[in-house]
Amino acid sequence: MDAVMDSLKAQLTQLRSKLDEVPILQKLEDQCSVPKEYISIGGALVVALAIVFGFSAGSICGVVGFLYPAAQSLRAIERKSSGGEVTQWLIYWVVYSFFSIIEVFVDFLLYWIPFYYAFKMAFLLWAMLPQTRGAKFLYDSFLKDFLKSKESFIDAALKDAKASAGNAASEAAAAAENVKKTIEQKKGE
């Protein structure tokens, strides 16, 4: 039993040293008089339970799947990091976008999968964490060849979307101008 406790204390000490780099946790520790490693473990537990039991699980998955990768992407850009780090985050965003598009079309089926958001969170963490590089694995194994084979179709769809957006903007501007003229005529009467 002592060996287990010693191991647990060593892991908590290691976690504490990593958490020393997060100033907000130090402020929380000072205000609450609770060690920051316990605060972070408790927070992780609350988030995990919320995901497993479905309380705002979609929102939590969205935030986790977006915030950390966005912050890391900005850091990589600002540091003008080597191509590897920037490429890793670009690949993550391609995989995340592809996953999000698929999710929109099969949303009505996902409702029936128990613990879907727990699986989604595990997938997002696997895809984003630099230790696992899951997004790179998915991209290299499946998406790269698929997207290259559909490149001309994607380019044509983007061209059509750009033209449609331009037409819609022109029509909206014309409608706004007509409304403005109508209002000016009403004021003149």
TrEMBL record:
One of its GO terms (cellular component) is membrane. It is a multi-pass membrane protein. The chain crosses the membrane at residues 38-68, 89-106, 112-129. Pfam families: TB2_DP1_HVA22. Keywords: Membrane, Transmembrane, Transmembrane helix. It is found in: Membrane. The keyword tRNA processing does not apply. Belongs to the DP1 family. PANTHER family: HVA22-LIKE PROTEINS (PTHR12300), RECEPTOR EXPRESSION-ENHANCING PROTEIN (PTHR12300:SF161). This is Receptor expression-enhancing protein. It comes from Stephanodiscus triporus. The lineage of its organism: Eukaryota, Sar, Stramenopiles, Ochrophyta, Bacillariophyta.
